[in-house]
Amino acid sequence: MKADVVICGGAIIGSAVAWFLRDLGFDGSITVVERDPGFAQASTALSASGIRQQFSDPLNVAISRFGVEFIKGAKARWGLDLGLRENGYLYLANTAEGAATLRANHRVQSAAGADIALLDAPALATRFPHLETGDITLAALGLSGEGWFDNMGLLQGFRRAEVTRLRDTVTGLQVAGGKVTGVRLASGATIACGAFVNAAGPAAADVARMAGLHIPVERRKRTNFLFDSAEPPTGDLPLMIDPTGVWVRPEGRQFLTGCTPPDDPAVAPEDFEPRYQEFEDIIWPALAARSKHFEAIRLQRFWAGQYAYNTLDRNAVVGPHPEVTNFLFANGFSGHGLQQAPAVGRALAERLVFGEYRSLDLSPLGYERIVTDTPLTEGCVI
Ligand SMILES: Cc1cc2nc3c(=O)[nH]c(=O)nc-3n(C[C@H](O)[C@H](O)[C@H](O)COP(=O)(O)OP(=O)(O)OC[C@H]3O[C@@H](n4cnc5c(N)ncnc54)[C@H](O)[C@@H]3O)c2cc1C
Question: With contact defined as beta carbons under 8 Å apart, do 328 and 355 qualify?
Fold first, then answer.
């Protein structure tokens, strides 16, 4: 077997790269190798499907701004309604330091064109009367370009690209003369390749190791909880991030919630056991304190997924390895990769077709910062 481009991982990132390659008119052969086309354990399928402009790094704002426009264009492009609910993200601060961080982020976001409003406690109470605002020093609300959407719908759109799809597992890489020359599969086959894209999500470090490369990406567990409220708050509610780190947003008539666990170790590849205790110990108390509408709630369903967590700076690693130059990374998204798929897919396709970024320069996210140990830290990771 032979392919000009082999993509390891066919979920949102791998499929986005394939789609943008075809969109740019790439007429070479593309093979996407995916071990589980049902995506049962892919982060893409287990995600909370949010998109926001509220990042601390301006490049991440630009990436998401393209993402939201791309999602809005799905109807015209594919005839798919991705159900974007542009309700915004609402960050709450309850200390002077937290307020200063929101102000600093707001300056970055506004300069990058994001549509974010700062609200003091009285303005917050007027806008969202169900919230307890007595302790709040400042809030930041996305007025447009933020919300949530249909994750699997976006994947379905990207999967329309005409490529060869193999249900198989990449088990080894042949490297010669600074290039990946062959991709070994569990089935026993080998694909000779021109370029290789690592889109393996939480398995990114394992796949990099197959080429003798290192990427500081660990699997970190995140549990999502879906609940009913006996007396739900009304109105168009945003995705709220409480100062405790607990987040909550409407999901139809229910609510979806989760938190950044205080104890956050790397987990084993097969560990998808939800951490129910987070709901009882952290989430419910925080929600009940923030709104009386979240006192009487009933848990309906919960599941765990894995973040591909970049321990250097909680930001994506995108682009070629400086020595194995046809090995391209698209990894380490640390909980914001779904919304970044359109911009990252387009960027890597440009690298492969033109040898350079043409629309949005993603070189600050390149692998070089791993070599020089120079973090490009993203402060807003949920
Ligand atoms: C609970 C949770 C909530 C999240 N919420 C959000 C959110 O609100 N907004 C947001 O933008 N992002 C969110 N994310 C992050 C987002 O889901 C991921 O960053 C994104 O889906 C990454 O996509 P991916 O294609 O890189 O990885 P994945 O979706 O994990 O896909 C990787 C694929 O590679 C395949 N694979 C791995 N190794 C091999 C191999 N050796 N051979 C063949 N196939 C292989 C896997 O089977 C898998 O299908 C969340 C993640 C989690 C876990």
Answer: no
